[in-house]
């Protein structure tokens, strides 16, 4: 009887410690280096930004909305080919960079053509962290940021 009580106590203790030791904090997202090059097309534009996650749990960018476009889609670039994706991961303790020539946002069916000097409001929707609103400045069509986006 003592043996099974000791085993049960050890098992309970191990389960408690396993639960306490996970150390995974929720995702802590912030957005930087956001911009939209002034579109050359009246119907489409691109957007770039960096999402940093200082938390201990990954999250996913699942969709994007903006009042300036009929739709905003998330694209991944692999081997020089771009394709629309349902989501992009923001790793725990890492970042997701949307940059020219790589992963990016596509603003489609523009309701108006944003001009350099304006700001476009964008809502980033995440699987776990909800919605983050970002003011994205419109830069010149040939703008190259210091951040490499």
Describe, in plain words, how this protein is organized in 3D.
This protein is mostly beta strands and 149 residues long. The chain is 13% helix and 50% strand. The chain has one helix and ten strands, in the order H-E-E-E-E-E-E-E-E-E-E. It has one helix spanning 2-20, and strands at 29-37, 44-53, 59-66, 69-78, 81-85, 88-90, 95-98, 104-110, 119-126, 130-139. Strands 1, 2, 3, 4, 5, 6, 7, 8, 9 and 10 form a ten-stranded mixed β-sheet that branches. The longest helix is centred in the N-terminal third of the chain and has 19 residues, at 2-20. It starts with a helix and ends in a 10-residue tail after the last strand.
Quick synopsis:
This protein is mainly beta. The protein has one helix spanning 2-20, and strands at 29-37, 44-53, 59-66, 69-78, 81-85, 88-90, 95-98, 104-110, 119-126, 130-139. Strands 1, 2, 3, 4, 5, 6, 7, 8, 9 and 10 form a ten-stranded mixed sheet that branches.
Task: Please state the overall shape, judged from the principal axes of the Cα atoms.
Answer: globular
| Tally of alpha and pi helices | 1
Q: What is the ordering of alpha helices and beta strands? A: HEEEEEEEEEE
How many β strands by DSSP? 10
Q: Termini distance? A: 66 Å
Q: Name the structural class.
A: mainly beta
- Radius of gyration over alpha carbons? 21 Å
Largest sheet: 10 strands, mixed
Averaging pLDDT over every residue, what do you get? 87
Helix content: 10-25%
Unreliable segments of 5+ consecutive residues:
1-22
Instruction: Give the amount of beta strand, in percent.
Output: over 45%
């Amino acid at each position: 009887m003592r043996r099974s009580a000791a085993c049960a106590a050890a098992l309970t203790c191990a389960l408690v410690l396993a639960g306490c030791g996970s150390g995974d904090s929720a995702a802590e997202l912030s957005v930087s280096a956001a911009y939209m090059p002034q579109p050359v097309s009246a119907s489409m534009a691109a957007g770039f930004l960096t999402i940093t996650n200082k938390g201990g749990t990954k999250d996913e960018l699942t969709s994007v909305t903006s009042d300036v476009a009929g739709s905003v889609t998330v694209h991944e670039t692999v081997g020089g080919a771009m394709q629309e994706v349902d989501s992009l991961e923001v790793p725990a303790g890492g970042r997701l960079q949307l940059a020219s020539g790589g992963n990016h946002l596509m603003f489609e069916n523009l309701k108006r053509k944003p001009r350099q000097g304006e700001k476009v409001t964008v809502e980033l929707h995440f699987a776990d962290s909800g919605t983050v609103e970002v003011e994205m400045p419109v830069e010149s069509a040939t703008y190259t940021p210091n951040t490499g986006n």
